[in-house]
Amino acid sequence: MGKEKGKPKGAMTAYACFVQVIREEHKKKHPDEQIVFSEFSKKCAEKWKTMSAKEKKRFEELAATDKQRFERENTQWQSTHAGGKGAGKKRKHQKDPNAPKRSISAFFFFCDEERPKVREIHPEWRVGDIAKELSRRWEACSNKPKFEALAAADKARYEREIAIYRAGGSKPSSSSPAKKGKSN
User: Fold this and answer.
1) Exposed, middle or buried, 144 (CB in 10 Å: 0-12/13-18/19+)?
2) Residue range(s) of every CATH 1.10.30.10 domain in the chain
3) Low-confidence ranges of the chain (pLDDT < 50)
């Protein structure tokens, strides 16, 4: 996952500020010399460890200034790119409670009928075990046309209701045939 376009660079630590200053000083003194990154990093780390708190204070101040820059830029970036909700977060789509319920598949009609039977035989089974058994039973089901007909009727109901809903009408009060009188 790459950096989002225009997102501000993160705030630098005091140590990162120190390394940047040392690198710039080294380039000024030796403009033609190539820097070997691993050796340069080791020398910077050794020097940082031996520095007193007073010597490090300069770099801590630079880091604090950079942190303020980052917070300012990030706040501005978030307000223009993420609706002020935070970078990278997607807003969850709010479903209209008046929209008609989606149609149910043949498999779910089958599950609504078979689940109580499976629970009766295996009351100790968890939801996942029951789902696996229902799936096995669906594969072996010889009465699929019955459930496919129920699904087709429910799909037709949904298409009628969604057409009315999209046309600006209100949702019919009837619910899905599979859910009427359902008890768990």
Assistant:
1) middle
2) 14-81, 106-166
3) 1-2, 84, 86-87, 176, 178, 180-184
DSSP 44: H
Fold for 106-166, please state it.
Answer: DNA Binding (I), subunit A (1.10.30)
pLDDT tens digit string along 140-158?
A: 999 999 999 999 999 999 9
In whole numbers, what is the pLDDT of the chain averaged over residues? 85
- Identify the burial level of 8 via C-beta atoms within 10 angstroms of its C-beta, where 0-12 means exposed, 13-18 middle and 19 or more buried: middle
Render the burial of 27-38: b for 16+ CB within 10 Å, e for the rest: eeeeeeeeeeee
Architecture of domain 14-81 in this structure: Orthogonal Bundle (1.10)
